[in-house]
From TrEMBL:
Signal peptide: none
Family per similarity comment: Belongs to the site-specific recombinase resolvase family.
Pfam families for the chain: HTH_7, Resolvase
GO molecular function (one): DNA binding
Protein's name in the database: DNA invertase Pin-like site-specific DNA recombinase
Amino acid sequence: MGTQVAGFESQLEILEAAGCERIFSEQVSSVSRRDKLEEALRFVRDGDTLVATKPDRVARSTRDLLDIVDQLARKGVGLRILSMGGMELDTKQATSKLMLTVLGAIAEFERALMLERQREGIKKAAEEGKYKGRAPTARRKEALIVKLRGQGVKPTDIAKQLDISRASVYRVLASAA
């Protein structure tokens, strides 16, 4: 089992142990729409508490976190973070709301520093010829794309079959011509 799957399952167990009655869960990238979060935010009612294992499970930035806390507060809903730097926070308490804001800002700052170091490392590796990035998915499938098109398969069908975008199919076909 991958560490991401194990971590996801662990979060579900923690939420169940905390007595959560309804769990909204999804595994999406940091840039994808978060349909389950949006559903949870629509679902909660006055007097409810939205529970998350960590702040980054709810929000992608400090601003996002504070916006969600404000949105919940307007509905009379609290936010409870089960693990916030070794402590539990509940936005129905003033001190917890302050700590959430401060710790969220620190987490966002640390993430920005980490991404900056990562970009610097990639740049240095590229300059040394050690980093070339990943090969584009469609380019790796170029021969198959050309073969399928030669067999009369439509670009839309090729895209579906190979799980790539239609634009990528056209781009490969144009460069192969």
